[in-house]
Amino acid sequence: MMRTREGGMDLKPMDAEQLRESAHKMVGFIADYYQTIESFSVLGQVRPEYLHQLLPDSAPNHSEPLQDVLNGDVSQLSFHFIGTRIHVLNGQFLDEIADVDTKILPGVTHWQSPNYIAYFPFYGSFAGSLGQMLSAGINIVGFSWVTSPAATELETIVTDSLAKLLKLPRQGGGVMQGTASEFVLTVQLAARDKVLKKVGKSALGKLVVYSSDQTHACIQKASQIAGIHAENCRAPKTDSSTNFDLSPRAVSDAISQDTASGRIPLFLCATVGTTSSTGVDPFASLGKIAKLIFLLVLISTKLFSYISATPEGNGMWFHVDAAYAESAYICPEYRHYIDGVEEADSFDLDPHKWFPTNFDCAVLWVKEPIYLPH
Ligand SMILES: *Cc1c(COP(=O)(O)O)cnc(C)c1O
């Protein structure tokens, strides 16, 4: 927007030539950022609410040139201090014309810094940034095939080729969304509705979800949203004696108790590479429990209604959460860690963690995609 001579607003948006010019500046800014990233303190050096003090509390009435938003073109200006603030001669303060440099970057935690070692890796890449630039520039909308056929088809091709790299079973298919947390919720809802359709909605209070105390917090959130009662979420404790892996025994014991008291095992989540300790749950055994021992327990406790609810003999939904470490299993020497993945009804992976893929990008494969739309 530019001010017109009369002082009103000219709402003319940026045109393609201005985009070309501004994009060069933006890329220059990003390249400078990476060339100096090691000079930043990894953790933002600010206090809570710092930004409120630096930005106006209502949206501006007119736009500023991009250069001023990024780092202010101060090369042609002369300065003097007024109090602690630097005043530039066009009537503004320096901190008013250099928003990203002076206000945003100090409050950024620099995940891409080589000095960053907290939480887990979150590797972006320049190729990933360029891909996002392209996608954002074209402004792709892909919620159904017809809204952008190329988006849907590319999604399928990419998830299929990723599946090939990981040597996943050639059954079902993959989709992409923002985060693994969304996927854990998605498959839990699919599992819930699959069972409730057979046993009736009133059984919601009987459904039980199993994971370990190392499972990512997204499982709890998903259970809460799915309406699973908090007292029906089992998370057996793990310890260092088993490298913090979930014990199949603890799971089968919990299943026995639950079925004996009339509850319905719904969902088991095993993790390949837990977020806190990179533990690898023995999911080949856990998968067997989900599919087989589970049925035996049911027969012994005469829960025939539920057995007839799963005529396919599917047992409970078995999800493998590989959000963190799955990328490693593309390497042939690590692939054996996911032997037995055929047992899983679904599993997720976060390319935005250990692939050179920018945030956000998560992939889910499901054995029977038919349950997702429901
Ligand atoms: C990070 C992580 C998640 C959640 O991933 P988001 O994509 O951030 O939602 C789930 N499970 C594991 C094992 C993780 O490491």
UniProtKB/TrEMBL annotation:
Name under which the protein is recorded: Pyridoxal phosphate-dependent decarboxylase
Species the sequence originates in: Dillenia turbinata
InterPro entries from the UniProt entry: Aromatic_deC, PyrdxlP-dep_de-COase, PyrdxlP-dep_Trfase, PyrdxlP-dep_Trfase_major, Pyridoxal-P_BS
BP terms from Gene Ontology: amino acid metabolic process; carboxylic acid metabolic process
PANTHER family per record: GROUP II PYRIDOXAL-5-PHOSPHATE DECARBOXYLASE, MIP05841P
Cofactors that this protein relies on: pyridoxal 5'-phosphate
PROSITE patterns documented for this protein: DDC_GAD_HDC_YDC
Keywords: Decarboxylase, Lyase, Pyridoxal phosphate
Modified residues (N6-(pyridoxal phosphate)lysine): K353
Taxonomy, superkingdom: Eukaryota
GO cellular component, one term: cytoplasm
Family: Belongs to the group II decarboxylase family.
